[in-house]
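Lab meeting, item 3. Inverse folding demo.
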């Protein structure tokens, strides 16, 4: 992002995704966490959103997101889970990184 011409709306999305405590300001810890390990940051945000919006019941949420009842989440199911169900604003580049990390067998 640095040194690139980025639209203001994209910067707002990035800012909101890094501002974990929703304070409207980035702390040093939030900025370092974003730069150090974006996958771990995303995992933390997924856990927080799950706890806040669905009472921390991952099995129930997984069943809800697994539209084709395959027993696994395909990319689009994961994407909809993150954006629509959990309300996170991370872009597809970040989500793809997390998805590939979670999809350890590469099955999609």
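The presenter then showed the designed sequence:
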């Amino acid at each position: 992002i640095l040194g690139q011409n980025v639209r203001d709306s994209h910067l707002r999305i990035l800012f909101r995704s890094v501002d974990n405590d929703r304070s409207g300001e980035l702390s040093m810890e939030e900025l370092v966490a974003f730069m150090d390990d974006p996958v771990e940051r995303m995992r933390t945000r997924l856990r927080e959103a799950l706890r806040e919006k669905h009472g921390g019941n991952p099995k129930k949420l997984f069943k809800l997101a697994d539209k084709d009842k395959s027993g696994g989440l395909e990319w689009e199911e994961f994407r909809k889970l993150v954006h629509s169900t959990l309300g996170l604003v991370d872009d597809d580049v970040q989500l793809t990184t997390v998805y590939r990390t979670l999809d350890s067998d590469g099955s999609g």
